[in-house]
Amino acid sequence: MKIATYNVNGINGRLQVLLRWLAEARPDIVCLQELKAPQERFPEAAIEDAGYRAIWHGQPRWNGVAILSRIGAPVETRRGLPGDPDDSHSRYIEAAVAGILVGGLYLPNGNPKPGPKFDYKLLWFERLVEHAADLIAADVPAILAGDYNVMPTEKDVYKPERWVDDALFAPEARAAYLRLLEQGWVDALRTIHPDAVIYTFWDYFRNAYARNAGLRIDHLLLSPALTDRLIDAQVDAHVRGWEKTSDHAPVWIELRDPIN
């Protein structure tokens, strides 16, 4: 089973890029972020023509998350994180797919720091940590995949000294990510590539992609019930070089079939 996460940076404006990648990579399940489209503007027909069923949580102009599957319709279990019923941001969606609970997330950027946007990032992260703990306690095969807007370590950022004042590299955000790992979640990409220089995002400016001046901010975290099934984890970095593409690249993992 192949499960991917991809920040598409505008699903309608970059639909042909997404469809091209789906046809090439053939992931079984995909978590998408930054749809930047209201609920009624999600391109459901084009996604279905590509062989995928979908659920999505849209928002005009900003945010937006979706889960696609070509191995059975996603059965939605949650839309939005618990803890703030007034939260208007479309940043979390969760579904049962083929025996796995899939949480797709788009964590707030948090810049500028300090300020209300950074405060919101940390509060949202706290809600994610609490919900993740509940999933661990339930002992279900689960994955939390998406754009975390966090570089966990210095290995995950080009020239880390330039990012010390940025919300994506803030000690508080990195500590929150570490709390997820301490709960038992496993960083799939780092498990397969423990010491490699590997990025998932390259800015549009300063020729970042050509210089490989990137960040690793897109993560797939596996619950203990899935860890033993991990076979591979990779970044389709070449997609970042396509015309009119997102500034993120798709990241995917491969899981072996369950014993039972």
List keywords for this structure.
Deoxyribonuclease I, Chain A, single chain, alpha+beta, 12 strands, six-stranded mixed β-sheet, 260 residues
Q: Approximately what portion of the residues adopt beta-strand conformation?
A: 15-25%
Distance between the termini: 15 Å
Strand order of the largest sheet: 3-4-2-1-12-11
In DSSP terms (H or I, runs of 4 or more residues), the helix count works out at 7
The top-level CATH class is Alpha Beta
- DSSP strand count: 12
What does this structure look like?
The chain has 260 residues and is an alpha+beta fold. The protein has a single domain (2-255), classed as Endonuclease/exonuclease/phosphatase (Deoxyribonuclease I, Chain A). Helix content is 25%, strand content 24%. It is built from 7 helices and 12 strands. Strands 3-4-2-1-12-11 form a 6-stranded mixed beta sheet. Strands 5-6-7-8-10-9 form a 6-stranded mixed beta sheet. Helix 3 (116-138) runs parallel beside helix 4. The chain starts with a strand and ends in a 5-residue tail after the last strand. The relative contact order is 0.16. The mean pLDDT is 97.
